[in-house]
Design brief:
This protein has 142 residues and is mainly α. The chain is 40% helix and 6% strand. A three-stranded parallel β-sheet has the order 2-1-3. The longest helix is centred in the last third of the chain and has 21 residues, at 101-121. The model has no long low-confidence stretch (mean pLDDT 93).
């Protein structure tokens, strides 16, 4: 079994690994719980755009502090993940508008408890393809 986030770069990485290991036959599940930490109102902005509205100190805090999250996207904001059709099977209230590392750890724990533990209990060794902060969350949790 293989798991990846719902983000394109993780899916492509999963397919690259599957190709190299000749394991395209292995079931692959995409799960939003493996997505990268959500950076809220600064998600997707280039650094020069970001610094027009926030300070370098704020950015450093939001990127590095465990309990600090950037300003959240409102559910009505078109950039909020609830407006992306790939998340249509997830309740809007469950999708983050921004996350701290604490939030990312909680999300990773949910994935681990609901998806990984059952696989491991069956003696399986699933492949996980995710992102820096989500993988950091796994290491923090375990």
């Amino acid at each position: 079994m293989g798991f990846s986030s719902m983000l394109k770069r993780a899916i492509w990485t999963y397919y690259t690994i599957a190709d190299e290991l000749d394991m395209h036959w292995v079931p692959h599940e995409k799960d939003w719980l493996l997505n990268e930490k959500h950076y809220g109102q600064i998600q997707g902005l280039q650094k020069d755009e970001t610094f027009k509205t926030i300070s370098k100190e704020d950015l450093k805090t939001w990127r590095s502090e465990y309990a600090e999250a950037p300003p959240s996207l409102d559910l009505r904001d078109f950039r909020h993940p609830c407006h992306d059709k790939k998340y249509s099977n997830v309740a809007p209230k469950d999708l983050p508008g921004a996350e701290s590392m604490i939030d990312t750890v909680e999300r990773a724990k949910t994935f681990w408890e609901t998806q990984m533990i059952p696989q491991l209990m069956e003696g399986k060794r699933p492949l996980i393809v995710s992102h820096k902060n989500t993988l950091r969350a796994f290491f923090k949790y375990f």
